[in-house]
Design a protein that fits this description.
Low-confidence stretches: none
Radius of gyration: 14 Å
Mean pLDDT: 96
Shape: globular
Number of helices: 0
Helix content: under 10%
Number of strands: 11
Distance between the termini: 40 Å
Length: 124
């Protein structure tokens, strides 16, 4: 049974930092690219960043480039998201998902469901 558990969210002031973690189990972790999505209140899920199976390839959404860094540890079945210089518009629930790469784009696996995510709130 696929399990993905996100953690590390919280309340932070603008300009602050957070490190999110994503612990995965129930599947061969190193076989899948992984991605972080986020959903702000009243908005659709947005793909933020993806990382290839071995961690050598990353793809960032423009608004987070230079501020967020994704990494993975295949020995621990864990993905990390280091978020620096946080802005109020980064406020959202962040989700970690298995993804696949097709024609240069990452997509959530159709059979996977959104978990609980972890809330990130950037506010003074």
């Amino acid at each position: 049974q696929v399990q993905i558990v996100e953690s590390g969210g919280g309340l932070v002031q603008p300009g602050g930092s957070l490190r999110l973690s994503c612990a995965a189990s129930g599947f061969t972790f190193s076989n899948y690219p992984m991605s972080w999505y986020r959903q702000a209140p009243g908005k659709e899920h947005e793909l933020v960043v993806s990382i290839g199976k071995r961690g050598g390839t990353t793809n960032y959404e423009d608004s987070v480039k230079g501020r967020f860094t994704i990494s993975r540890d295949n020995t621990k079945n864990t993905v990390y998201l280091q978020m620096n210089s946080l802005k109020p518009e980064d406020t959202a629930v962040y989700y970690c998902m298995r993804t696949y790469l097709y024609d240069g784009y990452y997509y959530k696996l159709p059979g996977d469901y959104w978990g609980q995510g972890t809330q990130v709130t950037v506010s003074s």
